[in-house]
Amino acid sequence: MTTPALLPLSGRRIPTLSPGASSFTHHRATLRLSEKFILLLILSAFITLCFGAFFFLPDNSKHKRFDLGLEDVLIPHIDSPKEGKHESLRDKIRADHERALQEAKEKLRKSREELQAEIQTEKNKVMEDLKKTNAGPKPLPPVPMPRVVGINDGEPPEPDVKEKRDKIREMMKHAWDSYRQYGWGYNELKPLAKKGHSTNIFGNSQLGATIVDALDTLYIMGLHEEFKDGQEWIEQNLDFSVNAEVSVFEVNIRFIGGLLAAYYLSGQEVFKLKAVQLAEKLLPAFNTPTGIPWAMVNLKSGVGRNWGWASAGSSILAEFGTLHMEFVHLTYLTGNPAYYQKVMHIRKLLAKMDRPNGLYPNYLNPRTGRWGQHHTSVGGLGDSFYEYLLKAWLMSDKTDTEARKTYDDAIEAIERHLIRKSNGGLTFIGEWKNGHLERKMGHLACFAGGMFALGADGSPDDKAGHYLQLGAEIAHTCHESYDRTVLKLGPEAFKFDSGLEAVAVRQNEKYYILRPEVIETYWYMWRFTHDPKYRQWGWEAAQAIDKYCRVSGGFSGVKDVYSSTPTYDDVQQSFFLAETLKYLYLLFSSDDLMPLESWVFNTEAHPLPERAPNRRLDLVFCYYF
Ligand code: DMJ
C-alpha cells in the first residue's frame, strides 16, 4: 500500500526538506500533528451542526401529515383535533377539489358567448355589492370652475327703465339691510317685531336661510359689499351638523341651489364646499324601501319621515321631483355619482308607474311605491316637478330627451284634464281631485305661464306658437287676479266658479306672502316676446309691494289683498330676496344679463349654468354605468 500523498490545507505540496531519516521522522511527526488538527476541526464542525439543528430546525411534533390522495399537505394543527375532525376536513377539501374540477370541465364545454355573459353577471354582482357597502369606485377628481357667460351689468338703455331697476335695487337694499340689522343669522326676519324668524321647513335651526337665498341676487345687482358680508357669515358660521329636522326639498332649492349659484357667479370655493357638505347630510333621506326620499330629514341623525298631513304617509311629488338640477350639478362638480343616481332612480321608478288619465298624483308612498290620494295640481304639491322635467332637458343642452318626453306627455295630460277657459274668457289651471276638476287656481300655479313659454321651443308637432300663447294666457289670468284686488297684489288662490272670475272666496285664501310666481311669468314672457305690457305689469306689482308690504323693518306679507287697511303677517320670506326681487330686477335689465341660452334658473330662481355638466356627465356615465 503506498502512503498517500498528504496535502496541506492550502493545497500546495509540502516541500521535502532532506532525504535523510531524521528529516523523515520529523516529517512524520509534522504530519501526525496536522492530521490531529484536521480531525479536531471536523469534529468541532460536526458538534456545531448538531447543536444548531437541535435549536433551529422546525419542531416536527407540531405538524401532522394528511394523505389527501393527490399530494401531501402539511397542515398546522393547533389544538390536536380528534380523528373525526380530520376525516370531515379531509372530506371537505376533497369535495371542494372535485367540485372545482367539475366546474372547470363544464366551463370548457361552454361557448365563448356563454362564458362572456357569465363573467358580465359576476361583474354586475360585484358592482352591486360594492354599491351596497358604499365602497364603489372613488369619485372623479373635482372640476375647475367652468367658464360662465352673461354676468355683466345689464344696464338697460332706456332711462325710465333704468330708474325702475334702481328702485328694485333699493328695495333689495332695504330688505337686506333690515335682515342684517334685526335678523342676522336667523333663517328669516320678522320686519314688524324686528327680530329673527323661522318656520318648520328649517326645523329649529339657525342656518341663515335669507343670507344663502339672497347671495346671488346681491351679486347680480352688483351689491358686492353685502355679498362679501354674506360670504363671511357663511365661512364662519354655516354649519350643517345641527340637530334639526329640515325639509329636504326646501333645503335643496334654497340652500344647495343658492350656494351653487353663488359659486358659479363668484367662483368662491367655499360655496361649493358648503353645498357638498349639506348634500351629504340630505342623502340619508333616500334610505327608504323605494328610494323615494322622505320629506324631512334630521341633519344630525339622518332619520327621515314624512309630513303628518300628507296622504297616508306619502312623499310629495313637487318635493321629491325637485332635486334633479341641483343633484346633477353636485355630481358634475364632485365626480361623485351618488347624487345623480338618486335622482335618476326616482325618474325610473316614476316612469314605470301607471298614471290615472296620464296625470301624476301629488302623493306617493315611499314604503309601498304606490300613489296616495289621486290629487293632481300644477300649483302647490305638484308644480316644480313639471318645471324640473323641462329644465333637466334644458340643462343637458337638450340631450336629455327622456326628460323632455316625460314633460311633453305630462303637459299634454294637464292641458286635456286641468286647463280650461272661464266664461269670461280667462284661461286657468284647475286641480284634479279624485276624478273631478276643481275650478280653482293657486298663486303658485302662475309660474306655469313662464314654464310653457320656456318649453315652447322644442315642443312636439311644432306647437311652439301654441305654448307661447298658453303662457301669455296664463300671464294674463294671473295679472287679472292681481288687478281685481284692492291692493293690486294677488291672493293665494282664486276661483272660476258660480260667476266668480279670478278672485279669492275664502278668507284663508286672500293673503299675499311676497310670492314671486306671477312676476316670474312676466319676466319669461318679456324675454320671449318683448311685449311692453309685461314690464308694465311687473312695475304695477313692484309699486304695490313697496306701498303695502314695506315697513320700517323690511317687507311683510299681508293677510287680505281685498282690504284697504292691510294687516301684516310679519314675515319677510327668504324667497322674496331670492326670487321676487331678482325677477323684477331682471325684468328691467337688458337681456344679456343672465341670458336664458346660458343659464337655467332653479325653482328658487338660483341660476345654474346650462351645458356645463354635459361633457363631464358623459365621463361619469362611462366610468360608473
Ligand atoms: C319658492 O320657494 C319656490 O318657488 C317653490 O318652488 C315654491 N314656491 C316658493 C315661493 O312661493
Automatic annotation (TrEMBL):
Residues 90-132 form a coiled coil. The chain crosses the membrane at residues 37-57. Its main location: membrane. Belongs to the glycosyl hydrolase 47 family. This is alpha-1,2-Mannosidase. Residues 132-163 are annotated as: Disordered. SUPFAM superfamilies: Seven-hairpin glycosidases. Its cofactor is Ca(2+). Ca(2+) binds at residue 603. PANTHER family: MANNOSYL-OLIGOSACCHARIDE 1,2-ALPHA-MANNOSIDASE IB (PTHR11742:SF40), MANNOSYL-OLIGOSACCHARIDE ALPHA-1,2-MANNOSIDASE-RELATED (PTHR11742). It catalyses: N(4)-(alpha-D-Man-(1->2)-alpha-D-Man-(1->2)-alpha-D-Man-(1->3)-[alpha-D-Man-(1->2)-alpha-D-Man-(1->3)-[alpha-D-Man-(1->2)-alpha-D-Man-(1->6)]-alpha-D-Man-(1->6)]-beta-D-Man-(1->4)-beta-D-GlcNAc-(1->4)-beta-D-GlcNAc)-L-asparaginyl-[protein] (N-glucan mannose isomer 9A1,2,3B1,2,3) + 4 H2O = N(4)-(alpha-D-Man-(1->3)-[alpha-D-Man-(1->3)-[alpha-D-Man-(1->6)]-alpha-D-Man-(1->6)]-beta-D-Man-(1->4)-beta-D-GlcNAc-(1->4)-beta-D-GlcNAc)-L-asparaginyl-[protein] (N-glucan mannose isomer 5A1,2) + 4 beta-D-mannose; N(4)-(alpha-D-Man-(1->2)-alpha-D-Man-(1->2)-alpha-D-Man-(1->3)-[alpha-D-Man-(1->3)-[alpha-D-Man-(1->2)-alpha-D-Man-(1->6)]-alpha-D-Man-(1->6)]-beta-D-Man-(1->4)-beta-D-GlcNAc-(1->4)-beta-D-GlcNAc)-L-asparaginyl-[protein] (N-glucan mannose isomer 8A1,2,3B1,3) + 3 H2O = N(4)-(alpha-D-Man-(1->3)-[alpha-D-Man-(1->3)-[alpha-D-Man-(1->6)]-alpha-D-Man-(1->6)]-beta-D-Man-(1->4)-beta-D-GlcNAc-(1->4)-beta-D-GlcNAc)-L-asparaginyl-[protein] (N-glucan mannose isomer 5A1,2) + 3 beta-D-mannose.
